[in-house]
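Teaching note: in complex prediction, the entire set of molecules is handled at once rather than each chain in isolation. The prompt given to students was simply: 'Predict the structure of this complex.' The entities are:
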Amino acid sequence: MFVGFGTVGQGCARHLQSHRRQLSDKYGFRFKVIGITDIAKGSVLNDRGIDLSKAISSAKKQVKLENAGLGGSGGLSTVETIAKAKADVVVESTWTNLTDAEPGLSHMVTALRSGSDVVTSNKGPIALHYKKLTDLAKVKRQILRFESTVMSGTPIFTLREFCLPSAKILGMRGILNGTTNYILTEMAKGKDYSNALKNAQTRGYAEVDPTGDVEAHDPAAKITILANALMNRNIRYTDVKSEGITKITAQDISNATADSKTIKLLAQASEVGGKLEVNVKPTLLPDSDMLAHVNGIINALNISTDVQPDLTLVGPGAGGDSAGYGLLCDIIAIHNLRSGWNN
Amino acid sequence: MFVGFGTVGQGCARHLQSHRRQLSDKYGFRFKVIGITDIAKGSVLNDRGIDLSKAISSAKKQVKLENAGLGGSGGLSTVETIAKAKADVVVESTWTNLTDAEPGLSHMVTALRSGSDVVTSNKGPIALHYKKLTDLAKVKRQILRFESTVMSGTPIFTLREFCLPSAKILGMRGILNGTTNYILTEMAKGKDYSNALKNAQTRGYAEVDPTGDVEAHDPAAKITILANALMNRNIRYTDVKSEGITKITAQDISNATADSKTIKLLAQASEVGGKLEVNVKPTLLPDSDMLAHVNGIINALNISTDVQPDLTLVGPGAGGDSAGYGLLCDIIAIHNLRSGWNN
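The expected output is the structure of the full assembly:
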């Protein structure tokens, strides 16, 4: 079932729909959607299966799910719907809240307690309550996956899990926020901060209140998730030192350019003297550093391991289609993990 | 068992040895090596298990495997050893032959027919006989994996398999040969071709006869493998149009630089008018193209799919440790596929 049916949830639904046959042929994955809930669009529960195309098109038209001719029943709260549905997989894509992680946290806890696996694009609960949620999943023998929380579905957690067996991740550095990277890229082309920000807002890359991006809360949440999940730590989001890009001036940029350097908002996690240091801050990168050349809304993560010293993954940093595909990727991983990859 | 015990085979053996405990704890993977054969070092077969550390150190000292105190028996030919061993997994890392793929091809065919799964870093058989080998593996219900044939173990095939479910790969472009990329990087710094080549030879990046690299045979083999395996084709290595870097002059480089461009030896596979076009050639890349900034022996592959338009993986392009890890990655994938990823 879908909890949250905005751009990302709909993106996932579209991929599920358009790849239905390949997913069945290749992985033996067959599905029906038995519930959808959304803060703006209401909720619907139908054990016989919801027509996804109809759900997507009525969501686009802002028709309430209860009135969209999807059958079944509506009217329950989101938490009640999750508990009642007992879906195999709950696809959670509600908004990120980095203060108390709600309502996503309650959605995930309810789902895991109700015997559902969870896939999510919601950074709040994973950044703030990683240990609590992974412990709960373990106790309940459920699977919790969150590929889309970082790099918008570019497969970094799945890569680590299936493609880097027993590798120890020693450090990471990355450009994890598309909005600020777009702004910095525009500034490098000569715009000042406020014009670059306006541009980003016009294109839909930055929100009306851009604080979460430009003050680096978003990449701080992402590097927290990466450090905890990939380096097996238990660091707190609030302990990540972070500094945004609001103080960067056109002069800073031209000084950097004159010195063959580029300013990027870099998120890092590395061991310094046996202690893990995690931070996000504007950083001068030399021309020889490939991350200096990651431009626009693209994200990139460089990881250093005990077996491959230098591996970089570059991919989309935003977009409902990409994040929605990350959710699909997690759903199929769950299917395959539970069925033994027998295909 | 190991077939070929040079830098790459030993690299794999070292990773297996040093990660023995993690592999057992995390994946329930326990192993013994029952055979090693090598064209220069002879062969040994010991069902009770070969002491890997001893094998590695005697290989380094050029002691014949039969005389290294590894127990068991020696003296058989490689193909006889493979057939007799009937190992669960054959780790094939003999040299690449792009003319008739031998002896690697016979090793793999023998192994698959003898009930062994095969992992390999040997480009020859995979580039020249992909369909024959994958068909044979299918008939024999064996698994054939070849992560280390491209990008030296940077996990591209594994990524596609486990991290991009049901995605259709529409095109690929990449820097797939470390030697030529190192030479072009040196030339961009002002060296002429012959000095850059000498530098590469001194550092062990280029062979005494550098033809396979500088004439682009190596990246042509790799893009053949990528196109066949990732885009589900049946193209022939000999049909790949390829052009090397020997004709590039210092003047070409400085012309490119003056135009804010970089010359890279680019391997490409893309659909043009319903037909797959595969080629390798020196290509002018603009500064805005991230591949223009992949320098030295590093490799990179950019893939475009129907779900993620632009995904780039950057990693080592050479090295026994990296390629050896790619083999380990394949071995663990086989273990997990056969045991159902139950961990």
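Point out the following to students. Chain A has two domains: 2-154+321-339, 169-316. Chain A touches chain B through 49 residues (CB under 8 Å).
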